[in-house]
Amino acid sequence: MPSTSTSAVATYTQWLRERDDAALTTLLERRPDLLHPPPEDLADLSARATTASSVARVLRQLDAWQSTVLTALAALPGETSVAAVAELLGPDAGTDEVAAAIADLRDWGLVWGADDDLRLVREARTAIGPHPGGLAPPSPRPLEAAQVTAALASLDGTDRALIDRLVWGPPTGRIRDAAGRTADSPVGRLLRLGLLRIVDDDTVVLPREVAWTLRGPAPRLLIDQPGPQPPVLGDTPADRSPLRIRLDDQAALGAAHEFVHDVGACCEWVAAAPVRLLRDGGLGVRDIAALAAWLGTGNERAALLLEIAAAAGLVAPSSQHTLLPTTRYDTWLSAPEAERWSGLLLAWRDLPRWPARSTHAGHHVLGPEAEWAAAPELRTTAIAAVSQGSPISFTTAELAAVLAWRRPGWGRASWSLSEAVDELCRELVVLGALLGPTDDDRWTTTAFTTAAAAGSVPDDLAEQFPAPVTEVIIQADLTAVAPGPLEASVARTLRLLADQESRGGGAVFRFSPHSIRRAFDAGWGADEVSRWLSDHSATPVPQPLAYLVSDTARRHGAIRVGAAWCYVRTEDAAQAEAVLAHPGALALGLRAVAPGVLVASAEPEEGVALLREMGLHPAAEDASGQTMTTPAPVRVPAPAAPRVRPTVDPAGAVATLRHRERRRVELAAATDDVLTTLRSALSTGRPVRVSYVRADGTAAATTAVPTVLSGGTVRLVSAEATSSVPVSRITGAVPVAAPGASPAG
To answer: Order of strands across the sheet with 442-445?
Structure first.
């Protein structure tokens, strides 16, 4: 077994005081929880850094190698050394790699002391458990190596099989009435040979020295001991020529542009048809299917887009428990496309939800089932792992192995790491940060992968986003083709005048009587529509479209609907008779009250719907007879940004701690001087000039003779009065120069 060092070391607080400013800054950078609120002094920092909650937070961030070295430190009692840890980890663990891991653990504040006098924070040892590495605590009277070897050689197969089960831990076993086992039973023979020892009446333990011998001629701490380096992630394909890389980046750029466009389209869909939320705040399956059909994509992509739109604050629930666009959506539309992409990326990266779970059976998009606090860390760690500067190709299994090494707890979690990685990669494909998967299930990184790791789009990549256009190509078949991404206001107006048929940079829009009438309902006139089309068409407006606009305008408003509950009036008596003859008129209670004037026992919207069903083109009007236009789009307030802790500069905090530490030392020195002066005056009976702070905080001074110094208080006798002053309030004590002077005020 490895030997340990027994040299004395300082306390943890004293060790912190001896660390330089750079080391303390590193500690606070790695453990920002220690800065909220800022520590009062280094003693306070020491107390916080060794709490169970703070230590547990650090343990979750260690990689597999650091965790293994920490386990080895826990297996070595008291003070130890780098060499002892390396010996315990076995021949595959180099001293340099162990020393580097210990240096990291020292930077985390989990290990303290020099390399030959290492101490482990007590809370870390407790968190690892009583049997680190599956080893029992050191035996009070360990067997010699030769004794263990001889005892093992005398065992038969049954006895050996019994202790082999305890070799890699846990080293304890439950045996009823262990102390009463006869010497000829397997447990009795093992106890007699010292290969097992009794813990209590029903528990035995495999001694540490026996387990170490049974682990083979080159023993190690863990049966599946990880190495100091993470598994290799993917490779750089040989055929990745500069041209191939540029083409992949262009494909990623197209995916990123389509992603931004689709998020905006989701918000437009929500604005056009506000959907009522379920009781748990989620959307029904039918609503997601309708959104997917409107986008022309699958339910999974539609769910992801809506989750990201909500995370970015572009859509939010209204007071009527419906989902609507927010005021932030209009601001977002006016931002450059690269900025919109990075904003959506950050919202997705920091989202404490896992959108893929919302599409599972019985779950709902935006519902509580997808909430997952570990999601942001998993995304950040995965993106950092695949962002290696140069393009790489990797599989889901390779990335899962790397993540399991970087965060060992994920590999042992109840959820499937491989499944989560596959879902994460598919989401990155939607964002444009990955391409794939290929036929052999490999994913490929792009320039947007590096941008995702940085959280922003570099200038050279932002310049590649296509510039927004304000003109479309209108064709004689009543379609308009956008030669690039449309400027937000142009796109919104075009969606009012036409129905969008395809997405992307070359989006296609189709004009129809219904779409043109939609513009007239919103208050547009025929001249205004024609002028807008002429201003935003790269070619002359085709004659069929001009005829469509004028013909729709001529028929629009020929019938006017008001409230009686509602009324219908028209100058064409034949049309009035046709309306009354329609089967739906009876259900609405329509009846004639004057030539060309009908009234109904229904809302105006129902009357308009009936007339449009008959192929007519009514226009709604208010009680004064003025034509009513479509109201402005409804918006809800954007959700408040999550409350962010105030940023504390670690270097500034260290400077403050150092200042307070110097002040503490100065006060301690001043207190020692005061006590020395008071004790001298007490023994000689000479007066001293004492400066102190009263209870109300005001300064005072007196010349007096100290008579009693006890319990942190000194009793002072002067010519005017006798008083007791706490030593902690005394700021100075100076002997009176004149020898033999009597007390005076």
So the answer is: 393-395, 442-445, 434-435
